[in-house]
């Protein structure tokens, strides 16, 4: 078993005690963290394949993304001044033309941007499956495998087209039966339940306004029969709340309760418009939340009550969301945006601390994905997913607190990122993909998608 030793760096373990070391070490043995502590690594270690001098750096757990839509990499910068519903109506006709090469190129672009910025566990919610478009979920899985990132693939679905009162056009949706069958096939083909898993599958119908109640209820039954997690969008906008009241006679949280969509195996994206009873229900049931501050601001959806969710004990992680509503495509910028946006709320400067922001992006995300025993903190026995951030340059040189430098300062360069004990980033560059080729291929596919969409 080979070992990697990282020492002389500040360390934020994000363990239960928020243990930190001003100058410490981490020893990685194979794909596991062997030891963490202050000062230099123990002497006499055998099989040391590499030693890394972390002077001027902060070592943290790898970032965990809890909500994304990779395919939207091809439609960035469009519908710039729309709210969610208008934005969806404007973009669905284009999204309904995607095919396998497009999704593969978009997944590589989305993943490359995140991994280069410290993400070690990615998640994607893909729910657009045009007829005859190829193996879209398989394209994402292939891209994640090639980039060497741990991946949670949420097999989404839509079966409520515009003619039945939904938002997506009819040609962009599946039948209820086809969606359920394809989701079950994805689980049977790809899901890995082992503790070291690099790939897990999640059942994920899109949202209350694009999915029938039958699909919601049967999806929950399918997930629990197969022992996998559930994910969807929830309480994102006032328009969604109005839709639920008009169509179902109740708000989103009550609707989720009625359809079996609350529990420790469930997490919702956004959860912006929640009252005290909604938050108490999420806390009581253990239902998690993916907080996407940049996307919520981009679409003028509002500000999630993250301090109140955390105070109630609700699991909360961070999400990039699709890059058509968060064009940067980076999760490490969400640490800063989560802190800043939440301080605009009722709690003001007491809303979040820098360490709470870091926890949201690491252990919080791991908890939301049900993997807190494996990833999300630097502790002996956990999987070796970690990031070494460079903080001795111009952008951070006068911030004495390294966690504050990471969260409040400029985006920090990644000197080294390990996933499952293997390097995926060195000196700010991907090791697992040619960034220029990824950019070129995605640009070509974006142009092809725009041309096909324009031709109708």
Computed over alpha carbons, the radius of gyration is: 21 Å
Number of helices: 14
Helix content: 25-40%
- Report the biggest beta sheet as strand number plus sense, adding barrel if it closes: 9 strands, mixed
Structural class of the helices, strands and pairings?
alpha/beta
Mean pLDDT over the full residue set: 96
Query: Beta-strand percentage?
Result: 15-25%
Shape: globular
Cα(first) to Cα(last) distance is: 56 Å
Uncertain segments are: none
**What is the total tally of β strands?**
17
Name a few traits of the molecule:
single chain, 456 residues, alpha/beta, 9-stranded mixed beta sheet, 4-stranded parallel beta sheet, 14 helices, 36% helix
Descriptive report:
The protein is of the alpha/beta class and 456 residues long. 36% of the residues lie in helices and 21% in strands. It has 14 helices and 17 strands. It has helices at 84-95, 100-116, 136-147, 176-190, 213-226, 238-248, 252-258, 276-285, 293-298, 306-312, 332-342, 354-368, 402-408, 435-455, and strands spanning 3-12, 20-29, 32-38, 48-53, 57-61, 63-64, 119-126, 150-157, 199-205, 230-234, 266-270, 288-291, 316-318, 386-390, 414-419, 422-426, 429-430. Strands 1, 2, 3, 4, 5, 14, 15, 16 and 17 form a nine-stranded mixed β-sheet that branches. Strands 6-7-8-9 form a four-stranded parallel β-sheet. A four-stranded parallel β-sheet has the order 10-11-12-13. Helix 2 crosses helix 14 (435-455) and helix 4 runs parallel beside helix 5 (213-226). The radius of gyration is 21 Å and the shape is globular.
